[in-house]
Each structure stands twice: as C-alpha cells, then as structure tokens.
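Allow me, if you will, to draw on your knowledge of protein folds for a short while. A protein sequence and the structure tokens that stand for its backbone fold form the material at issue. I would ask you to consider whether the tokens describe a fold that such a sequence might reasonably adopt. Thank you for your consideration; the sequence and its tokens are set out here:
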Amino acid sequence: MHDLSLLLRLKAERRGQPSAVILDSRTVQSTPESGARAGFDGHKHRKGSKAHAAVDTPEHLGHLLALVVTPANAQDRQQVAELAVAVQAATGETVTLAYVDQGYTGQQAATDAAAHGIELAVVKLPQAQGAQRGFVLLPKRWVVERSFAWSSRFRRLARDYERLATVLIGLHFLAFTCLLLHQFIGSILSP
C-alpha cells in the first residue's frame, strides 16, 4: 500500500513522502463479535470501537498512513503518541506537521507529538461560521472525512465485526490498498 501511495504522490508531482498529515477518529458501531473490546462513545451515543487514523494531506490523495483501534470511550488526545510512532515509521520520519480537530488539544497531546518531531495544528471553525448549524467544511480536515467515507463503503468496515483489533486494522489497509490501486490504474489509463 505504501508503494502505491509513493507512486501516486510522484505522479502528482509531489515529494515521495509526506511532511504533513491529518489525524482524526471515527467510531465504528460494534457487533456481538467485537462487543468484548467495545466502549461507549458518549458524544456519538454509540457503542463500538474507535479507529484513529492518520492520512496524507493533499486534497486529491487522502491515503491512509497509520491506524490505531481502541474502545470508543478512549480519548483522541491519548492516542497521539501511538499514532505519531506509526506515522513516522510509515513515512521514514518525514512528517513534521499534523492537522487535528479540537479533540486533540491539550499539553499532553502536544508533548507526545513533539517527542516524535510532529507539531499539532488545530483547525477550528472560523468565527463567522460559528453560528452555522450542521456540518461545516473545514480547511484540510475534509480530506480525512472523505477518507472515512471511502472506508465506510466497504461492507466489512461499516461496522466492527472483528474479534481482534488487528484484523480491523488489516481490513482498513486492505480497503485503502484497493482504493489506491483503482486510483493508480485510472492515472495510468488516463491521458
């Protein structure tokens, strides 16, 4: 998967490895098979697992670089250290900036990221749009939301059917490999 990502980045005339990523999480509803490791996400009112992802930043890419699976009641900011380690291992220590939402604020999250050479940049709602209700498209952050939408199209990732978190991680990487392969073949066939 990382080789396909590298080829697509080079085809898009970008450097081989990213220098910035976007971190976010999504809650995947559990089933009886995964219920033993599930937690309750009070914000989304859902019992399940949380998939904490790091994706590439360019708007036309959004490739999955790292994934950590926890119970849904785990705080996003507590996963920064593990995500930073996984991102730097996947990219060869090239990432220096991570765009995050307000769930990743706090001194501990910033310290955990800085320990691995990554600075956290919190993307907030513009003040003028603060009164707007519903979904608001945020700069940079929409890339990770689109990546989550791509993964939810795979039936096996729409819910958490797996007993082991490692299988859920593997299925995410398999789904993104399929997506990257589709993009790569499309880029070769298009003039």
Notes: The chain has a mean pLDDT of 84. The two ends are 24 Å apart (CA to CA). Strands lie at 20-29, 39-41, 46-56, 64-71, 97-100, 119-122.
